[in-house]
Amino acid sequence: MAQHPNSLLDEIFDTALSGPRIFTQKSVLFHDYVPSRLLFREDQTRSLAYLFSPLLRGERSSNVFIYGKPGTGKTVVTKLVISKLQQRADRAGAPVSVCYVNCRVEGSEYRVAASLARTLGQDIPFTGLSVKEVFNRFTTALFSAGVTLLVVLDEIDCLVSRYGDDLLYMLTRLNKPEAASSIVIVGISNDVRFKEYLEPRVLSTLSEEEVVFTPYNSIELEAILSARVSHAFQEGVVAPEAVQLCASISGSQHGDARRALDLLRVAGELVERSGGPVVTVQHIHLAEQTMEKDRVTEVVHSLPLHSKLVLAAVLNCLEETKARVRSSVIYGRYVSLSRDLGTRALSSRRVLGLLRELSLLGLVDKRIENYGRRGGRVTMVELDAPLGLVRRALSDDALVAELFS
Questions:
Q1: What is the layout of strands, in order, in the sheet containing 208-213?
Q2: Whose CB among 32, 60, 192, 267 lies 3.0–4.6 Å from 283's, allowing a Cys bridge?
């Protein structure tokens, strides 16, 4: 006999309130937690601190581009350094302001420009103005404020791949020798080839320094996880082998500390939900399966229509060839699918940008292969997630599902 919904809910909530608790401070396992000490990132922290320190003396600083794969500490190190910089600037009376913008979260040029303007006290509506008008208001506020504005554009590659580099170009043109205000640009990118997609006019005005974050190895990840475990869990509830397995899985695949922390957190939640006493190796394996399914499904569901069509084109081609496919072939299939749905296809350049985004999301693996002078450089693509899982997630969209029927 099926359990009544109210009884089922009461049982779950009662367990949550009175059942065994293995976490003491779960928040230290989430991505936005900034630890007081960043293991194995002392060199990068020092580099950024040296680059920004002239601002405390009222001097200009170089623009900076920060590169590294997801989960290598780029954002957390940058946030730590700029937070400390702002504190010291306030204490010293230095005219420095900091604006952090996640370009993937903001999602458009308008919202990025609005975030910059709001940092300087401008009241910008959610919609209704042109990007140029928002940027003009930001510029007016900047030169009236008489400050050096440190602008951190996290996941800047997402903004450029979608909208081009016009906004970045306008920012680079703001600094003038006679002005009391200035701007320093810090770009954070998961794509080490990001600068290849910028126009020469932008590159010529950036004058940037570079800081690279290499992936963590298994030994470093184990040390990071062990430090977090001591704060996040009750003593003795996480088996040492479970920590080692988390580090080994993430170290061998991506060197991604965020993935390792997610594995440990989800495994802990599974144990707490079942009322078990210890996080074991088996729980890590179960958490890995759960996360992969949830991640792919969630990411695919959140994609806009044309990104789904590009992914469907990749899937369609791979089901035929069973091997890596040229981006030009994928574009031809994408155009065909767009026609089938009665929607206007994007340009090949825009589709390359969407492939780049899908690669950053971990859905496809895109790489450049060099075939010499005659063959040239060719972009080859394959899936970086289980084919069946991607197909099922795409089929949840009624429009895209028609393409598979």
A1: 96-102, 148-154, 182-189, 63-68, 208-213
A2: 267
